[in-house]
Each structure stands twice: as C-alpha cells, then as structure tokens.
Amino acid sequence: MSVFRSAKHIYAQVIDDSSGRTLACASTLSKEVEGSSNDEGGKVAAARKVGELIARICKDRDIRRVVFDRNGYLYHGRVRALAEAAREAGLDF
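Request: output the structure for the sequence above.
Response:
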C-alpha cells in the first residue's frame, strides 16, 4: 500500500509490484470520504476514513496482507491515522 499526501488530500493505493497494476485505491476525493474533512475533525479524521475505506475495498477483493510504503513521509499525523485505521479494519501489514 502506497500513501501520498498533499496539503489538502491523502491518497492510498494497493499496487501489485510484479505486474505494476493498481489493485485498490482510495482518497479523500472518494465519494465515500469526500466532504468529511471539513465536517468532522479535519484532515486526520478524513485520513482515518480513507484507511477504513481502503481496508474495506481490499477485503472485498480478497487482499488481506500488504506492505506499507509511506513514501518518505513521517509516520505521524495523517499517515499514522490512515495506517492505524487500515489495521483496525483488518488489513495486515
């Protein structure tokens, strides 16, 4: 699972390294998450929702185990919130 964060949004995608295909993706721009950053707790809460969403998508596609790639970002704030929410939702890494 690769994570990218910008000033406003956070993105997560699960990539199959051998074939180079994206298997699942979610971001704060996803319809399920969109608008939550202003309503309920800011960007960290939105990152938690992205973590829960990516875990749910992976479960639906029978993906249970991933490798977490934080792309050089510190494991803090939004990146940590996304990772912890994905773990709590059942994704193993």
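The chain has one domain: 2-89.
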